[in-house]
Design brief:
By secondary structure, the protein is of the alpha/beta class. It contains 15 helices and 15 strands. The strands form three sheets. The protein has a seven-stranded parallel β-sheet, sandwiched between helices. A six-stranded parallel β-sheet has the order 10-9-8-11-12-15. Strands 13-14 form a two-stranded parallel ribbon.
Length: 394
């Protein structure tokens, strides 16, 4: 028998730097007297799923998670729930379509950060910002009804249940004597693998782009170290779900990098003074914590070429060029708080940005446009959409 107030919260994926982010939804739903169960995808079927070691974690065990091994296993296990609250994962569209055909109601929500929340045919899709609402409505060949997309913000940083280090202990752990400068590269090895798709298996082009990508990463690391700063590297969280972990860690250690441990991500974002990247969307996280970011001009030519410039309502490019006649079109992020540099002037730009007290209103505008809010109430707004869907059809 289907119970009206029985809700299944389905984690989108295991994220090493914030594995407990979705528990805030369960806690708040239970306070509202909903019967809530936590469902976690098994790594045996979903590449970014949860392993047995993780599901046996003492915090997760308090919530008695139900593990599902594939789409049909999940469908069978949620048959008594009338509503599903589903996190971000590319592979969930299939079972969501089937569940809707079976009469289930579905709310999806942003739980992954970056640009990783895709429309998966939910009744209501809770996205983190107006920018993302526009960006998501045109994904794929199917046009999504804007009325089904609601702006709520993201739960990614709302309820971090991770070990906290005070600033001095963080700096001691990572041998930081001066400013905390963090380099955010794309994974060398997963980037190399994706070049086959992006460059249509053109071997000469693949070898050329790969060599240039490696060179640029090496040069950035060299400049940071030559300035006397500790080389801190924050690897992409998806890397830890890939087959290339050992190779990637060795590559960066050979360059003399201190690699931020995934569970220290929140500590790092709390204390970072400057983020740097060739081409990633890491300014989303760094600017959310109201710290500046530098992108490298040389990264703009690297694949993929992302066409989301037209979705940005802010001035394009870095905030230190806002208001100038020629906006900078940068393909990793259309707009960010910070500066644009190149290898020739990176050392000068680092010093300039570290000594620049960026306009607080720039951070406010940025957070509102890309995150909606940093008020830690995204979960409340998501649950409000759950209530709306329960009370009436969408």
């Amino acid at each position: 028998m289907i119970r009206k107030n029985k809700i299944a919260v389905i984690s989108g994926r295991y994220i090493f730097h914030n594995p407990y982010r979705e528990l805030v939804l369960i806690d708040k739903l239970r306070k509202k007297n909903f019967d809530v169960s936590l469902f976690l995808p098994s790594v045996s079927h979903y590449p970014k799923g949860y392993s047995k070691n993780i599901t046996n974690d003492k915090i997760f065990k308090e919530y008695n998670p139900i593990i599902f091994n594939n789409d049909f296993d999940l469908i069978k296990k949620v048959k008594k729930s009338n509503l599903l609250l589903v996190g971000s994962d590319f592979k969930y569209s299939r079972f969501i379509i089937l569940l809707r055909l079976l009469g289930k109601k579905v709310v999806s929500y942003d739980s992954a950060g970056g640009m990783d929340h895709k429309n998966n045919f939910a009744n209501i899709s809770c996205v983190k910002s107006e920018f993302y609402k526009k960006f998501m409505s045109r994904l794929g060949k199917i046009k999504i009804d804007q009325k089904t997309i609601r702006v709520t913000g993201s739960i990614l940083f709302e309820d971090m249940r991770l070990p906290k280090l005070i600033k001095s202990k963080f700096k001691e752990k990572y041998s930081v004597n001066d400013k905390t400068i963090v380099f955010y590269p794309k994974s060398i090895f997963t980037f190399r693998k994706k070049l086959n798709t992006w460059l249509k298996r053109d071997k000469k082009s693949i070898q050329s782009v790969d060599a240039h990508h490696v060179y640029l990463n090496e040069q950035v690391c060299k400049i940071i170290k030559n300035m006397g700063h500790t080389l801190l590297v924050k690897l992409h969280p998806g890397l830890y779900n890939s087959e290339f972990v050992k190779e990637e860690l060795l590559f960066w250690k050979n360059l003399g990098a201190n690699i931020i441990e995934p569970l220290d991500t929140f500590n790092m974002l709390s204390y970072v003074d400057l983020g740097i990247s060739l081409k990633s969307q890491s300014s989303l996280d760094v600017n959310y914590f109201r710290k500046p970011f530098i992108y490298l001009e040389e990264g703009n030519a690297l694949p993929p070429i992302l066409d989301h410039i037209s979705d940005c309502m802010l001035e394009l490019g870095p905030s230190d060029s806002w208001g100038k006649a020629d906006p900078i079109k940068f393909h990793a992020m259309p707009s960010w708080v910070g500066s644009l540099a190149n290898l020739r002037n990176l050392n000068l730009k680092i010093n300039e940005v570290l000594n620049n007290d960026f306009n607080k209103s720039h951070y406010e505008k940025y957070i509102e446009h890309f995150w909606f809010s940093d008020d830690s109430k995204a979960s409340d707004r998501i649950i409000e959409q759950v209530n709306i869907l329960i009370e009436r059809d969408v």
